[in-house]
Amino acid sequence: MAVICYILGANPHVSVITGFINRIWRHHGYDNISFLQNGVFLVHFPSKEARAAIVQGGYVLFDNKPLIVRPWSADVPLRKEKVVRVPVWIRLHDVELKFWGKHCLERFAGEVGKVVKCDLYTEQRLQLAYERKLVELEMDQALVTKVKFFDEKDALCIARVEYEWLPVMCASCNGFGHKADTCVRKKMTKVELFGLLETKIRSRGVSRLLDVLGNNWSYCTNHVSHDAGRVWVLWNPNLFTVSAIESDAQGIHLKVMLRPGAKQFWLSMIYGFNSAVQRIEMWERLRSLHAIVQGPWLWCGDFNCVLARDERIGQPLQLAEIRPFLDCVNWCGMSDIKAVGSFFTWNNKQGPLTRIYSRLDRAMHNDDWGLEFQDTVTHFLPEGLFDHCPCLISLLGKVEDRKTSFKYFNMWSLAPEFKAIVARGWDRQVVGCPMYRVVQKLKGLKGMFRKLNRSNFSNVEQNTQVAYQLLLECQRRVQALLGDCGLVEEEQSAADTYVGLKKKRDEFFKQKAKAMWYDYGDDNTAFFHSIIRLMRRANKVLEIRDLNGQICTNSVGINAAFEDYYKRLLGTSTSVDKIHFSTARKGPLVSADHAKMLLAPVLGEEMMGAMFDIPGIKAPRPDGYSDQFFKNAWEVVGSKVIKAVQDFFNSGKLLK
Questions:
Q1: Are 352 and 218 found together in one domain?
Q2: Is 213 found in the same domain as 100?
Q3: Could you list the residue range(s) of the whole structural domain that residue 384 is in?
Q4: What is the domain count for the chain?
Q5: How far is CA 1 from the centre of its chain?
Q6: Boundaries of each Endonuclease/exonuclease/phosphatase domain copy (predicted)?
């Protein structure tokens, strides 16, 4: 006869387990202990009665962690199984002595979980600082941090809940006692191309390092420019074809081709000198490379320089230190890759009063990289015993785009039939309060606007380019046949078509880019495309760590992580505490004149003024309509909107 045992959230040494079992079950006369793997062990008993007494004997705790016990038979697997509920000791603080009756204490603890037993000191009132109870918690239940109740005078009382231990579960291996970010069994990331900086391996030591890494790697070093071999680049030749362009003491510059997809990019692995004067040569080298680079370009490494004031803490920073790096970045058109993990990538490992943090390491790319490898993300991992954080660059596959909801575009108001469409939707008969009628009319307009967009505004950028080319062709024909009135009229018609499409395109770009200014001299098409790409990359969440420490990279997992976070942050609906008006009246009160002003009716002119003061490029509301829609259609919708707002102020009720 035997039982399977393991301690939830702990894996003590064999000698500790032996002593613990001997202390708690010695009087049952167990035979021996058989130790398995992963903290699981078997305890053998001489009879069924002894085993039954153990299984039915209630919870046993080891350092506040439960000992999981279940009877063993030949068909029971020798492994840890899913735990549904666990016992936890809790402490209830701030409970007055008059509530220390048995029924009151059990009721308070029952708000946290199922009460198992009461602590002896609490039961005998030998320790009055807090109430201590053993309660049973469901593994997936929300934790209670406060217990609220009313005393005999109807005054609110709050007891604070303290948990002596809570189970921590790993989402990676489903084990207890650690989270996924510290899980030793977690799948390791396989790196296929990497750079080593500050190796200090001289030429004669190269062969020894290759013996350690194996013969499956190709490599390139800058030993020719610096005998210490400050920069190494190694890659898997089965996945990459690499051509060395040039190297110097502060970097290696390569051209890389990914074999599976035949995509190419330029790579600059950087390790800048500590001296600002010596780094000038590096900035000049990068500028000269910019003239010959065609296509995606990636910079990564230790630049030994920061780009902004907030990238260093603990030491003064002069703008003169930043300027050369910033000028080089702007000249080459580089920007930081979206990064997660540690913001400060280096620290001097000194004490709290002399610790310096800096963002010296980074990965940057040009616009071509952003187009070719849209979903690249950089991970800055913890530095461990080193002073620099390792940098991991992931070329993620295409992240599936979520289905976009309705969004009002300002360019729709340029259509001649715009107001007629709004009037047709606004004349629809809807029964209900004024606000409900407005909301339903707005919903009905969405289908009409989608149809308008498909017929008049689809491919607006391409259509604008085609119209411009037609205009140029007409002008060339007019120049060839001067005096042809028909061609002149055709040119004017082409110009009108182009101007109309250009207005639509400009409105579209301004709204998408949220640019507060616009230069009509050169159209700024490249500017707006760049801004839109930057905004899309900034708004796109490529990965996120959920509450269990698990990294999610697909849309389903990312959405669930956000939902779980805000559910935990905002909590669930609870009963609202009573408002004691007698207490409120003792505080500051508004005067009679102020009260009269607050109760005065809201005028339509005030609402219209407030609406028209909002910039038209502001983000839309949850229903997809921006404030610009109401400005564009105010002649049609204004009166109904005013009635809806006035009804809210009169009734105090808002649609859910």
A1: yes
A2: no
A3: 193-395
A4: 3
A5: 52
A6: 190-381
Q: What pLDDT does residue 243 have?
A: 92
Claim to verify: residue 313 and residue 374 sit in the same structural domain: yes
Residue 195 pairs in a beta bridge with 233
pLDDT at residue 398 greater than cutoff 60: no
Say what the pTM is.
0.52
pLDDT, average across residues 369-384: 84
pLDDT at position 509: 72
Pick the closest to residue 283 from 342, 346, 330 (CA basis): 330
106 and 64 within one domain: no
Residue type, position 35, single letter = F
- Residues 229-239: b if buried by 16+ CB within 10 A, e if exposed: bbbbbbbeeee
Residue corresponding to tokens 């004669």: 204
Percent of the chain residues past pLDDT 70, beyond the cut: 87
Structure confidence by residue, pLDDT tens digits, 108-147: 888 888 888 888 888 888 888 888 888 888 877 788 888 8
Asked if the structure places residue 489 within a domain, the reply is no
Q: For residue 461, what are the contacts with CB-CB under 8 A and spacing of at least 6?
A: 505, 508
pLDDT tens for residues 531-580?
666 666 666 777 788 877 777 877 788 888 888 888 877 766 665 667 77
Q: Can you state the angle between helices 485-513 and 460-480, rounded to 10 degrees?
A: 150
How many percent of the chain have pLDDT more than 90?
20
C-alpha atoms less than 13 angstroms from C-alpha of 499 in its C-beta half-sphere: 6
Helix (H) or strand (E) holding 511: helix 485-513
Give residues with Cβ within 8 angstroms of 200, minimum separation 6.
228, 229, 230
Residue 593 lies in a domain: no
Assigned domain for 320 exists: yes
Query: In angstroms, rounded to a whole number, what is the distance separating the alpha carbons of residues 621 and 37?
Result: 56
What's 524's DSSP letter?
Answer: T
Domain boundary among 147, 166, 185: 166
Q: What is the CATH number of the domain that holds 325?
A: 3.60.10.10
Give the distance between the most distant pair of CA atoms in the chain: 118
Neighbouring-strand partners of residue 193: 235
